[in-house]
Amino acid sequence: MKVENLELPRVEGEARLELFWKDRLIEDARIRINSMRGIERVLVGRHYMDALVITPRVCGICGHAHLIASVRAIEDALGIKPTEKARLVRNITQSLEVLQNHVKWFYLFMMPDFILLEERLRGLYEPFRGERWHIAINMASKIAKGIALFSGQWPHSSYAIPGGITSEPFVKELTSLRQILLELKHFFLSYVVGMEEAEFVKCLKEGSWQKLNGDAGLFLELCHREGLLTLGSSYDRLISGGGLYAPCGYFMKRVVHGRLKVDQIEELNAPSYSGTKPVRYRGMPFETGPLARQLMSGNLMVKSMHKEFKDSFAVRVLARILEVWSIVEVIELWIERLKEVLQEKSTSLGRFPSKATGIGYGIVEAARGTLIHRLSVRNGTIQDYAIITPSQWNLGPRCENFLGVAEKAMVGLKSKLHAQMVLRSFDLCSVCTTH
Amino acid sequence: MRVFWLQRLTCCGNTHSFLNYESLHTLFKRFEFLYHPSLSLKAQEETVEELIKSGEGIDILIVEGAVRTDEVETRELCKIAKYVIAVGNCAVYGNIPALADETVCGLSYRFKERRGLLDKDFKSRGGMPVINLSGCPAHPEWIVGTMLMLAEGMEPELDQWGRPKVFYSSLTHWGCTRNEYFEWKVEAEELGSKRGCLFYHFGCRGPLSYSSCNTILWNEVSSKTRAGTPCFGCTEYDFPRLGLWETKQYAGIPAELPIGVSKRGYIMLSGIAKMFAPERLKGEG
Known about the structure:
The complex is a heterodimer of chains A (435) and B (285). Chain A has 435 residues and is an alpha+beta fold. Chain A has helices at 39-43, 51-54, 63-78, 84-110, 112-115, 122-125, 131-151, 171-192, 197-206, 214-226, 290-297, 300-309, 313-340, 390-395, 405-410, 416-424, 430-433; strands at 2-7, 16-22, 25-32, 160-161, 164-165, 237-240, 249-252, 254-257, 265-267, 279-281, 287-288, 358-366, 369-378, 381-388. A 4-stranded mixed β-sheet of chain A has the order 8-7-6-11. The two termini of chain A are 33 Å apart. In chain A, 59% of the residues are buried. The mean pLDDT of chain A is 95. Chain B has 10 helices and 9 strands. Chain B has helices at residues 13-18, 24-30, 44-54, 72-80, 89-93, 95-100, 140-151, 165-168, 179-183, 263-276; strands at residues 2-7, 32-35, 58-64, 67-68, 81-87, 104-105, 131-133, 249-250, 253-254. In chain B, the strands form 3 sheets. A 5-stranded parallel β-sheet of chain B has the order 2-1-3-5-7, sandwiched between helices. Chain B starts with a strand and ends in a 9-residue tail after the last helix. The model of chain B has no long low-confidence stretch (mean pLDDT 96). Classes of the chains: A alpha+beta (435), B alpha/beta (285). Chains A and B meet through helix 1, helix 2, helix 4, helix 7 and strand 5 of A and helix 1, helix 2 and helix 6 of B.
């Protein structure tokens, strides 16, 4: 058996991929991510408020999701509720973070792979030079500016506090945000799907993904040619903690809505090759992320594609691209509600209790899927802090009974480029995996 | 100029901060990026191999993330670079990863001790020590600004921590929209408001940290203190301190006073300031 050990370019952080070949097919695949930073350990013994500064540093691209997970875990432990205004603003900034992630991921991480198959795509997607590459990066930084309007900066803000937020946004921030969303819609329609709004909305309702133009259309065409419409499937079991625009629940042969039972979520011991602990729900591996959310929310385009190709590479990618539109729509709803409560206080507490005791969970839908923080506080001091990241669900290793989700998706592939692409379709983030 | 971006133990926050730079389009015309782990088509091993074979050096090596004390390859890359920039607090001081692991440090420092990966008298090929851009993360303008100075042949003057004075000679306090509240000692009693100074109750390190966060704004629009969040001093070696949201006090006086201010001066001035503070600064307004 031939074993190949690959270094992966264009991932968040460091990762290696080990492929085991037999008869020109990938028989087994292992993802090696081994750079622990020990963030959970650093938190123990500190005041719980410090978590709001330290957990965002788990990840430079989804740090805001960690902030929101932290503040929710603290609020849960202390029995505090944020004001409606703060709740909406947090929803907005966290969703914006997901949006900038998706734009960067598709254009900077995913599409450049196709250059290796089609030289003519260089003009569009080549790193540092491509036309679309630059338009996308510019768009992503404008979205980040939208977060900073409320949170002071992005990356690494700590503006969410128990009971609310530290900033006092008003009309000016809302109108500036509205402009950014308009620009994003323009970007999405002109480049990503290449359609007028009315036409796109019609396609969405019909579920006719075949009609997509723009870069999504080009992507599907390339997938068709490469056979990637059907490749890269995993267990076709998907899970969503509920958030952004999607309800919680899971998909296992059919969609089941309902809250996740946290006591059924289990972190197992890492096998020797991996620094990451596998996560299971009811003892089984589940994929989390945009595809799960789109199925939970019933996006018709994703549903019809999923019906045909299950959880394949192309479906996973398309779900993530189309999610940009789903999120923009829900942010617009939140802005309307926010207008009504703009006079409310930014926080229900003002000052945080210095001595508090309790155990709490914070569950957030981050760009890559369900993120869970659990903390235990005694007299204001953190006794224990545990983080389960979306990348642990998707990229985590095997356990005794099952391969990891991404590992399984690579088995049976015929080329190492395909294996890398399939792995990248999970939006690989090794820094989150090895907090 | 040829740039090589290396990542070690990192959250990639400095990369995403850098990607917020307004005019990357023109930047990438001026600087050839030989390698960036999040962006390049090729993998690092392949690029390094080609680089060594070609015998051509690197003009700017940017290191993001904390390192281990025994890293050979990082040390080798530092040797062939004309200039070395440590970007972000992990690469400069070790930061959070160094809190969790004794064998982790920055390029020159481990927190305040001169116990980094490189020798104390390290000079890159261009004759400069490591240029440190502290901050968690560093601001894109600090990163790009430093690169541009090097490209113009104007080597930046550095402070005692190896940081370019142009970005780190003033306090975060400079340009803070709450300065008038600080002056008249009108303290924020609660979080969640545009008004009041965060120094007295909420641990704000603005008058104790060197950065240009309030003169070169974040994402061109804001900063922590403008968004009502205290400065946590993330450009200094002791970030993240214990009890980030609280100001330690002795007998009603902050345990640490603004840099250069005497205890006697602080007590006298704050007494007078409080007495004469304008009404418009008090209350909800």
